[in-house]
Design brief:
single chain; 499 residues; alpha+beta; Triger factor/SurA peptide-binding fold; Chitinase A, domain 3; 3 domains; four-stranded antiparallel beta sheet; 14 helices; 39% helix
């Protein structure tokens, strides 16, 4: 399947105020009783699980493609596990199988790291295995609590989350991802749709469990809303930033260097095409991880001084290097910015994007032979997607042939859009200044066309939130905090044995 698909694994909708409008369990269709076994078992009709290997095919390691790698295939790294046929851990006597662990690792490798499990370097493989096993242990604890409460999750509820994932992601053609494309990506990565549905099932079950435990205990008073409205008004005359975060804690000073290196590794992965939201869900230790790191709007001076100073220097769409602050390391993403209340905003000129206009363009070609195999095409499209995700103008594009063996750069100069192909016209029509059109296949390889005009930030001014918005936000904050405490208590009492 061509294209780098930024699948937002872990994107089940977080608990929100509107989720509690109906205290009863709304369960359309035939409900699925949530048990640890129901999400751990291999898909019905699967071949012998002990012989399923994630290392189907070989391709360029996307973690290295921008470091002098070529477009040719590369040997896979062995990921054989001495405990492949057995149980890797038990949680309150419920097993986690090596099959389940490898399926989830393959899912994360495909959707977070944009690679296959078999292509990970040994150190990356070990780190991913440890992180994924910890997530599965937490997931098993949540599922066991859901089972005690007789929580059910229907296929329709999981379908809704799958549909949300498809709507939030696009294939290489620029269109919404289809279920067939999703299945192809998962299968090629050595995972499965069943593994994805199992993760969504566990997330939805936990949301319902927290709702059942705490939903009727939260009381947002008018005084609470008034106080929050006053705080919003106090910051109205300052710039506001829409921020996402990845937080890695430093529990003691001996861990500082290791945590810093982990944060730098995440930064490197994002430069190579990994999605911030996906990495946040998988690795951030902040309460915002469940929302892809979304911290919401903050105003100048609201965060720690070093974080506020970093935000003030950033442009919309930028991701910071790791910043040492209270408790650990932060990576910040500036998603949007609003100027102080009442600021007059001039309209932004985005430049011509219709057939009658002209644009200064540049082209990067990733050549492919006429007999290129499907894996070769997929590898080239992965590299192309990484280039597009990190595109920062034509000068940067001109340097990439030094880093990607075989790539060819062309300065196209000022081009009349009507002279371009209809597909390229369509791709450019959806871009803004300084952006790149989606990768396209041609007779000679994968084509990337970038705009050489400077990026333009579209500025907006801050507006005060409504009382309803404030009430919903306060509810979200409280239910999230209660959910974290709930899980912490369950983990403290759990009997976890790693083998």
């Amino acid at each position: 399947m061509p294209g780098l698909l930024a699948l937002l694994i872990g994107a089940a909708t977080p608990l929100r105020a509107q989720d509690f409008a109906d205290a009863g369990p709304a369960v359309p269709n035939t409900p699925r009783q949530v048990t640890p076994q129901s999400v751990a078992a291999p898909p019905p009709g699967s071949p012998d699980a002990s012989r399923i290997d994630a290392s189907d095919g070989k391709s360029v390691d996307p973690l290295d493609t921008l470091d002098g790698k070529s477009l040719d295939t590369a040997p896979a790294v062995s990921t054989e596990n001495e405990n492949e046929n057995g149980i890797v851990a038990t949680v309150n006597d419920e097993p986690i199988s090596d099959f389940e662990l490898r399926q989830r690792m393959s899912l994360v490798a495909a959707t977070v790291l944009n690679t296959k499990l078999s292509e990970l370097k040994p150190d990356d493989f070990k780190r991913l295995r440890a992180q994924t096993l910890q997530q599965l242990e937490d997931e098993r604890i949540r599922l066991q609590e859901a089972q005690k409460k007789h929580i059910t999750v229907s296929p329709t509820e999981v379908d809704k989350e799958i549909g949300r994932l498809l709507a939030q992601n696009r294939g290489s053609d620029g269109k919404n991802l289809t279920i067939e494309q999703l299945r192809s990506v998962l299968t090629n990565a050595g995972s499965s749709e069943e593994a994805l549905r199992a993760q969504f099932t566990a997330q939805i079950a936990w949301q319902k469990t927290v709702q059942d435990e705490y939903g009727d205990q939260i009381n947002i008073t008018q005084t609470d809303i008034d106080a929050e409205m006053a705080r919003a008004a106090d910051g109205a005359t300052k710039p506001h930033f829409l921020v996402a975060e990845i937080f890695l804690p430093v529990d003691n000073s001996d861990q500082d260097a290791k945590v810093q290196k982990d944060a730098e590794n995440l930064e490197t992965q994002m430069k190579q095409g990994a999605q911030f939201q996906t990495l946040a869900r998988e690795f951030s230790q902040s309460p915002t991880a469940a929302q892809g790191g979304d911290l919401g709007w903050v105003h100048e001076g609201q965060l720690a001084p070093e974080l506020s100073a970093q935000l003030a220097k950033m442009k919309i769409g930028e991701v910071s290097a790791p910043v040492r602050s209270v408790g650990g390391y932060y990576i910040l993403a500036l998603r949007n910015r609003q100027e102080p209340l009442g600021t007059k905003i001039e309209p932004v000129k985005t430049g011509p994007v219709d057939a009658s206009g002209t644009l200064k363009l540049a082209r990067l070609l990733l050549p492919l032979p006429p007999s290129a195999t499907q894996p070769m095409v997929e590898n080239a499209m992965k590299i192309a997607a990484q280039v597009r995700a990190s595109y920062n103008g034509c000068e940067q594009l001109a340097q990439l042939p030094k880093e990607i063996t075989g790539a060819i750069y062309y300065d196209m100069g000022e081009m009349k859009l009507q002279d371009l192909s209809p597909d390229l016209q369509k791709g450019l029509a959806a871009t803004k200044p300084g952006e790149m059109a989606p990768p396209m296949m041609s007779d000679v390889g994968v084509e990337l066309i970038g705009r050489c005009d400077a990026r333009v930030e579209e500025r907006t001014a801050f507006t005060l939130p409504t009382r309803e918005q404030i009430q919903n936000q306060l509810f979200d904050d409280q239910i999230s905090a209660l959910g974290r405490r709930y899980l912490r208590d369950l983990k403290r009492d759990a009997d976890v044995e790693v083998r």
